[in-house]
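queue> pop job 88
queue> type: inverse folding (structure -> sequence)
queue> payload:
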């Protein structure tokens, strides 16, 4: 009965109950999350309890319900795609108000957009000459843009249209952006390939993992990236890439908490075809891992779409700025 199945943009899937046999069915938090009189925890308990009941009955679950079994709850700009789709809009709006989707958003300098022929926006930067929040100057941002454009010239020379091989798609469309945006200034190193989280060989494998090494030489994972090229899908998997990103971010947060880092935030990127979506995750209350979808943008389809470079960079720069609160 589809009327009993939560809706989101991801395929519904049968969720094998044995797979969650190690999960705690009854969630009893020590403290409740209340925002301006709204008991958010109680609403999420109802959502999660229903997910468990559906799993026990071997019903189809949406990916958001699968995530709720791990206490991961999704907030998006569109309430219908969030974990709050069955509740009054006031719940969704209150959380969005406290956790803005465009937090830490930063525009590239106008000069960089001119280089990419991306000057349609009438809202030209008024702060081009000021330093950015992370302390980097306009010159350092321009250097990153120039480096990416230089690398893209080489990639464009051997461009493969409609690339469907995953490793080739990653190198052609994504690697250059991840390497140069995250490794600038703060030094988040990105590992590419089927990669486990640090210190956990049994963890889920991501296509990229971004990590940071502290002044005490301890390395922490902060970023997980899952990629499916065009014409390929993760819907045949027991866990979709969307679910994997959420669980990978949660595992990173848990490790950071165990290491004594207060209020850590981790980030994730999901690429499905040419669409890239960006996320962050944080433990906002007892048992509430809030997974925030910050935005989405299209990757470059052709060399002629180079005007899309600033938008891609700005979405990734937002995640880097969000991670700066943790490292």
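queue> result:
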């Amino acid at each position: 009965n589809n009327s009993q199945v939560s809706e989101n943009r991801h395929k519904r899937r049968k969720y094998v109950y044995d797979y969650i046999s190690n999960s705690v069915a009854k969630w009893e938090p020590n403290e409740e999350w209340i925002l301006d009189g709204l008991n958010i925890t109680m609403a999420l308990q109802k959502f999660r309890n229903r997910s468990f009941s559906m799993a026990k009955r071997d019903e189809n679950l949406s990916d958001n319900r699968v995530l709720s079994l791990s206490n991961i709850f999704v907030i998006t700009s569109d309430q219908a795609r969030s974990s709050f789709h069955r509740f009054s809009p006031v719940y969704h709006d209150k959380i969005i108000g406290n956790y803005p989707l465009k937090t830490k958003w930063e525009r590239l300098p106008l000069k960089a957009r001119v280089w990419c022929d991306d000057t349609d926006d009438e809202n030209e930067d008024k702060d081009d000459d000021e330093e950015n929040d992370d302390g980097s100057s306009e010159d350092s941002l321009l250097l990153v843009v120039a480096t990416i454009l230089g690398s893209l010239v080489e990639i464009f020379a051997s461009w493969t249209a409609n690339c469907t091989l995953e490793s080739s798609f990653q190198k052609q469309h994504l690697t250059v952006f991840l390497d140069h945006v995250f490794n600038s200034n703060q030094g988040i190193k990105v590992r590419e390939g089927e990669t486990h989280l640090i210190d956990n060989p049994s963890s889920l494998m991501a296509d990229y993992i971004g990590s940071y090494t502290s002044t005490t030489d301890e390395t922490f994972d902060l970023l997980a990236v899952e990629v499916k090229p065009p014409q390929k899908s993760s819907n045949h998997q027991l866990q979709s890439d969307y679910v994997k990103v959420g669980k990978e971010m949660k595992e990173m947060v848990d490790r950071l908490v165990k290491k004594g880092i207060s209020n850590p935030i981790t980030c994730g990127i999901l690429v499905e075809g040419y669409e890239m979506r960006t996320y962050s995750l944080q433990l906002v209350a007892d048992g509430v891992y809030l997974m925030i979808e910050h935005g989405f943008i299209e990757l470059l389809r052709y060399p002629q779409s180079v005007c899309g470079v600033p938008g891609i960079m700005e979405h990734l720069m937002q995640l880097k700025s969000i991670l700066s609160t943790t490292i």
